[in-house]
Amino acid sequence: MGAAIECFEGASALVVPRTRFAPVKKCSDLLLLRSDAYIVTDDFRTVLSPKCNGVAPVMNLDSKKYKLVDALEEATADGVPSLVQCTRLTLKPKGKVVMSSKCVFVGEVSIVNDSEDVKKVPGKTHKDTTIDLTNAK
Fold first, then answer.
1. Which of 3, 32, 61, 83 is the most exposed place for a label (fewest CB within 10 A)?
2. How far is the C-alpha of 103 from the C-alpha of 19, rounded, in Å?
3. What are phi and psi of 103, to 5 degrees?
């Protein structure tokens, strides 16, 4: 509930279940919503994909590096990766990382880039692994 609600006489809060509303407060929420982990139903509701078995993947993006949408746009310039089979994605690189729609993350995946250079995540399936791009060309 927002703090501004007290400024409106007679206002009240409603509890909206996540089956009807997917909140986007951080870029990690936006990445998840843009991925295939969510689908748009015939009546235009955005809901968690049935393939996720009722549990959304946990997104752990560096909150300083991915604070603004522009940084997420750069990271997904080649497309949004598949997250429908992902349980946890950790992305806390020192340098920039670019993912693509050819990337499929399955299980728990961490992405590391300890260099200052922009590195691309290989477009393939990555399952339960740490992808270290530090020395990648």
1. 3
2. 27
3. -85, 130
H helices of the chain, where? 27-34, 69-75
- Closest to 86 in 3D by CA, of 110, 116, 113, 62: 110
Catalytic one of 25, 64, 120, 137: 25
List CB contacts of 88: < 8 A, sequence separation 6 or more. 57, 58, 60, 107, 108, 109
Q: Got the DSSP string for 77-122?
A: TB-PPB-TTEEEEEE--SS-EE-BTT-EEEEEEEEE--SSS-EEPP
pLDDT in tens, the chain (137 residues): 567 777 888 888 777 766 666 778 899 999 999 999 999 999 888 889 999 998 999 999 998 889 999 999 999 999 999 999 999 999 988 889 999 999 999 999 999 999 999 999 999 999 999 999 999 98
Alpha helices by DSSP H, 17-64: 27-34
127 is catalytic: no
pTM for the structure as a whole:
0.84
Terminal-to-terminal C-alpha distance of the chain: 46
